[in-house]
Specification:
Layout lengths: L10 E4 L2 E4 H18 L6 E5 L5 H12 L2 E4 L6 H11 L3 E5 H6 L10 E4 L13 E3 H6 L16 E2 L9 E4 L4 H15 L6 E4 L6 H13 L2 E4 L5 H11 L3 E4 L1 H8 L3 H5 L8 E4 L6 H11 L3 E7 L3 E6 L1 H6 L6 E2 L3 E6 L12 E7 L5 E3 L3 H6 L1 E2 L2 E10 L5 E6 L4 E3 L2 E3 L1 H8 L5 E11 L3 E10 L7 H9 L10 E5 L12 H16 L1
Parallel strand pairs: 1-11, 3-4, 3-5, 5-6, 6-7, 10-11, 10-12, 12-13, 13-14, 26-27
Antiparallel strand pairs: 1-2, 8-9, 9-19, 14-15, 15-16, 17-18, 18-21, 20-21, 21-22, 23-24, 25-26
Length: 508
């Protein structure tokens, strides 16, 4: 159970607020008793609607005692989106920041016990007629003393890029898997006793959550951040002598776009391990980060369904530029073509993998969809790529994002890796749309840097020196902001749908 073998001491910080690990462990034990009295049983779900907050850890502890799943909800979601997940996972309790609970109150089932914690401004509000104050509910109970049940961990809902999101529900881990899982996460995130961790990403996402739970057990200090700000990240690293953190490539891009003199004001020499995941990292961006921070940049690849299964350090990446790494211990990877033939080195196809460090899963209430992603016991994340002769994995793109134009396979990720380095481009996404002549053609959605006004001609000329002509998008569409997940992935479906709708209107 998380926390039982935690090293002595340890503080969790959010802004100027600091909470001792021992306090959160005690809170978690009391919460377990209170939730048990409420009727939470082994295998039940507890929904969590919070920004990054120390209380995350106490609720994780309580659920571990009870053998319940924690369902972390994306707090950016609409009331309808939250309501769908609540109806799907049927939790026994909902715990959230008061202002977030209030925002979605109309979507909360009337028979679902809801509990509020202080919002980010420290305020408690009456979110609904059936919402209670969490700390009062928790503190009326004695600490849990019964034997711990088999821990379930989190049940995270996938992003739902097609249809409704699905809950990834794992079977309880066997003792041997618990050991392998701890070893895998140690190797992926560089976990060590006494580390000083910085959690940049949202705890409702798989990788920041997994990293934070490990840091909770082992770190002297774990600093949480509500939202990413590049200069604040540098300031926090320097002030707290941060040694370990997890990031996504968009954070690298925004750090590198800070003025070089400003970057030089902050000492980042304390960093020993920075893991990035969540989306493809443009090679030029990663190389610049290694030049700046040194060979402390580590990469991992996986998914909510698979866990982090592949990884590499800076030196391995420099020897195999563009790779996401090699299979970690206990991980098997196979590449298959459209006819289910296994491909050898350099053969591009769909990636299937499985690691021994995670128990098997199903999609909550959707066993048929679980079967659709399985091949011989290995699972696909929907990505296309290849293994080189040395066993390093390279990702070409998402299978659904691949564009076939004039009979040629085009991988938008390659174009995006070039586009992100174009002067004046802050963010970008490339996708395919129907084309009468070629079947599909490329569209680039562009978010410009504040104050910049790049033109299609400027961007096309920049790409012409870096890409083959057929890879240059035919159309460039400018947006004030692109819809990007906190994990780093862009909602391309939304951009594509928006483009097709506007095109239909223009052609009407």
């Amino acid at each position: 159970m998380p926390g039982v073998n935690a090293v002595p001491g340890g503080m969790i910080m959010l802004g100027t607020r600091a909470v001792a690990r021992e306090k959160l462990l005690d809170n978690g034990a009391r919460a377990a008793t209170a939730l048990d009295q409420l009727g939470v049983r082994e295998g039940d779900a507890i929904a969590l609607l919070i920004r990054n907050d120390p209380c995350y850890f106490e609720i994780i502890q309580a659920a571990a005692h009870l053998g319940a799943y924690v369902v972390p909800l994306n707090w950016h979601s609409t009331a309808d989106e939250v309501g769908y997940i609540l109806s799907d996972c049927t939790p026994r309790a909902l715990i959230g920041h008061a202002d977030l609970i209030e925002r979605v109150a109309g979507a909360i089932p009337v028979d679902l016990p809801a509990f509020t914690i202080a919002d980010h401004a420290g305020a408690i509000s009456a979110a609904s007629s059936h919402a209670n104050e969490w700390s009062a509910f928790r503190d009326q109970a004695e600490p849990w003393t019964k034997p711990a049940r088999a821990p379930r961990g989190t049940m995270i809902y996938t992003s739902g890029t097609t249809g409704h999101p699905k809950g990834v529900r794992r079977a309880p881990m066997k003792p041997e898997q618990v050991k392998k899982n701890a070893a895998l996460l140690r190797d992926i995130y560089g976990i060590e006793d006494g580390m000083r961790a910085f959690v940049c990403g949202p705890l409702y996402h798989a990788s920041p959550g997994a990293f934070a739970r490990q840091a909770f057990q082992h770190a002297d200090l774990t600093v949480l951040q509500h939202s990413f700000d590049p200069e604040d990240l540098l300031r926090t690293i320097a002030e707290h002598r941060i040694t370990h953190l997890t990031m996504v490539p968009t954070m690298f891009v925004r750090l590198l776009r800070l003025d070089e003199k400003l970057r030089g004001r902050y000492d980042v020499s304390s960093i020993r391990w920075a893991t990035h995941t969540g989306a493809a990292c443009p090679p030029d961006v990663k190389r610049q980060m290694i030049d700046w921070w040194g060979p402390v940049i580590h990469e991992t690849y996986g998914a909510t369904e698979t866990g982090p299964a592949v990884g590499c350090d800076s030196l391995e990446w420099l020897a195999h530029p563009g790779t996401v790494g090699r299979p970690m211990a206990g991980t098997e990877i196979k590449i298959y073509d459209e006819d289910a033939n296994e491909l050898g080195p350099a053969g591009i196809g769909e990636i299937f993998l499985r690691t021994e460090a995670y128990s098997d899963f199903t999609y909550h209430g959707r066993p048929d969809q679980r079967l659709q992603v399985d091949r011989g016991g290995l699972v696909t994340c929907g990505d296309v790529g290849y293994l080189d002769a040395d066993g390093f994995l390279f990702i070409c793109d998402r299978k659904r994002d691949m564009v076939i134009s004039g009979g040629v396979n085009i991988y938008p990720a390659e174009i995006e890796n070039a586009l992100v380095n174009c002067p004046g481009v802050r963010d970008c996404a490339v996708f395919g749309v129907p084309d009468e002549e070629f079947g599909e053609s490329l569209v680039a959605a562009i978010e410009a840097e504040p104050g910049a006004e790049p033109t299609p001609t400027d961007i096309g000329a920049f790409l012409a020196s870096r890409l083959a002509r057929f890879k240059i998008p035919k159309r460039f569409v400018f947006h004030d902001a692109l819809p990007r997940e906190a994990s780093g992935k862009i909602f391309k479906r939304k951009l594509r749908d928006r483009y097709l709708q506007s095109s239909a209107v223009a052609g009407a």
